[in-house]
Design goal:
This is Neurofibromin. By secondary structure, the protein is mainly alpha-helical. It has one domain. The chain starts with a helix and ends with a helix. The protein is globular and about 40 Å long. 62% of the residues lie in helices and 0% in strands.
């Protein structure tokens, strides 16, 4: 399903998709804005990252005008806020890496997108992403299989590329 939504959906539906994603992701936070991390929420976020990256990567013949109809700031910040509260497991590092790649892709398409407060949005993303590279970001919860240093290095690189795109 995520492949179909990411690749085959009509561009005219993008604004509705963005609003619906934002609406669903906002339900992952309680009244005090605390993140309610669960496996199903994390899986949803992972699928959203995939879908959004495919939507923004698409070089369709259709004009990009539909991307700019609604602001994606709220949706993206909600996704990043959720992901930053994941435990530092191998799976979470992969999700964070994919999210950084999405941010980089988003900034490549920034001229096609609508932003309400672009500088504030970009600064907030830089703050969140640099958080993953500095200090506590490499305290992996339970030891995962394989070489953790490789995936943390991949995360560091993806974060720095995303930050560079934001600046």
């Amino acid at each position: 399903v995520k492949e179909l939504v990411g690749h085959e959906m009509s561009a005219a539906l993008y604004p509705t998709l963005f609003e619906q994603i934002k609406s669903v992701v906002e339900k992952f936070f309680d009244q005090q804005c605390q993140v309610m991390v669960s496996d199903i929420n994390t899986q949803f976020i992972e699928h959203i990252i995939f879908i959004m990256k495919n939507v923004l990567d698409s070089k369709s013949e259709q004009p990009a005008e539909h991307l700019g109809v609604t602001s994606i700031e709220g949706m993206m910040l909600a996704v990043v806020r959720y992901v930053r509260h994941l435990d530092m497991t191998v799976h979470a590092i992969h999700i964070k890496t994919k999210l950084c790649q999405l941010v980089e892709t988003m900034m490549k398409r920034r001229d096609d997108l609508a932003f309400r407060q672009e500088m504030k949005f970009r600064n907030k993303l830089v703050e969140y992403l640099t958080d993953w590279v500095m200090g506590t970001s490499h305290q992996i919860a339970p030891p995962g299989s394989g070489d953790v240093s490789v995936i943390t290095r991949d995360l560091d690189q993806a974060c720095m590329e995303a930050v560079a795109a934001l600046l």
